[in-house]
Amino acid sequence: MFGVRVESLSEDARAWAARFPAPGVVESADGVWDPSVPSTARMYDFFLGGKDHGPADREAGLRVMAAAPSIANAARENRAFMRRVVEWAAASGIDQFVDIGTGIPTAPTPLDVARAIVPDAQVIGVDHDPLVLAHDRALVPGMRIVPGDVRDIDALIADLDRWVDWDRRVAVLLIAVLHFVTDEQDPAGIVAALAERMTPGSVVAVSHVCSTGAVPEAVREIERVYQDATSRGVFRTDVEIAELFGRLDVVPPGVVSVQEWPFECGLEGGVPVRGVPVLGGVGVVPAFVSEPGDVAGAVEGLGGVLAERIASGVLDEGAKLRRDVLAAEFGVTRRVVDGALRDLIAAGTVVVLPGRGTFVKASRPRQYVKDYAVFPGRDGLGL
User: Fold this and answer.
1) Which of 111, 99, 20 is nearest to 57 (CA)?
2) What pLDDT digit, counting tens, does each position of 312-324 carry?
3) pLDDT (tens digit per residue) in 204-251
4) Pairing of the two strands 278-284 and 203-209
5) Who contacts 31 (Cβ-Cβ below 8 Å, separation ≥6)?
6) Contact at 8 Å (CB) between 125 and 99?
7) Residue 25, exposed/middle/buried by CB under 10 A (0-12, 13-18, 19+)?
8) pTM for this structure?
């Protein structure tokens, strides 16, 4: 778990913070951020020994380290896991990578690792932290930066459609990300949504803090610290973490401690990772087995129904078209939904708004506010 407000700082931390101007809330082109609120990204930078963190981040990080002294080593092992995953994927021929929750750049970056093997590899970094986005643009010029939040997965996938060729294999990195997604925000659904968009042979890599084998007192204290950070932290059991992969084929050795993937190769001389185990694994998107036999026909059928509903006004101008709702209502995969929406976008009746999602085209911008979440029925599509 890698990422307390000023009022919770210790006396020493207050004295240290007093040496710096109090900038207050900072506004930027990418959003607003408050230096007094610990950031998960800046805390991770602190654990890795970086310099891009402030007093509140350091204070929160010290509280985590007091509860789990091996956390800095766990962060380094987690970073090494990312490197090995990218090396493995690039060596298998994958040249597209999406690093979700890319964080403050730390060498080697996924771009460095991928291009050492595939010189023209494309890496897309995704984050919602304004400070992270600024650092990534400044320090990793070869990586395309996409502002986005994995917790709004439909909007994120719609944004990624501009840059990712989903018909070719791609590796999506969810490194130390899903433990900042609560059960209500459906982390397994996020993985499933990505898998539905990806072609067979693509991979999803996940690392996640684990409560199984953890020191209970450490878990409770760390979760308390992250309650006051930019994202709440959630520990899960080893079984719950394995279940996040859903229908993906998990490659050997399975979901294991990050320093044991793909084999035991922990940092020499490092402190053993105790107190807060971090598990990692890689899933491969299998051949689609739940698609209709006639995918093109299913796409055309769904597109026809949506087009008719738009024309008749059942779907109002500005209505948000949620892929998960469409897939569930019509009993098809997101691949079919994506195909139907692409046809409607090409026809000019549906538009994608970066960072917001897919909508029925409206005549006025203010109409793009509705979330059409319930459909009346399948209309006998037989999909």
Assistant:
1) 20
2) 888 888 888 888 7
3) 999 999 999 898 999 999 999 999 998 999 999 999 999 999 889 898
4) antiparallel
5) 128, 130, 147
6) yes
7) exposed
8) 0.71
